[in-house]
Amino acid sequence: MILIKQELIKSEIIKDNKQDDDNEGTVRTQSDKSENSKNLNNLCLNLEDIQKGKNAIIHFVQHQYFEDEFMKLRSGFPVKCSSKLHKLDPFIDTHGILRVGGRLRQSDLPDEMKHPIILLKTCNISHLIVRDIHRKIGHLGKNSILTHLRERYWIIGANAIIKSIVSKCVVCRKYQSPIIQQKMADLPSDRVTPDMPPFTAVGIGYFGPFEIRQRRCSVKRYGVIFTCLKMRAILRNCKFVRYRLMY
Question: Region Disordered: start and end of each range (predicted)?
Answer without folding.
Answer: 16-36
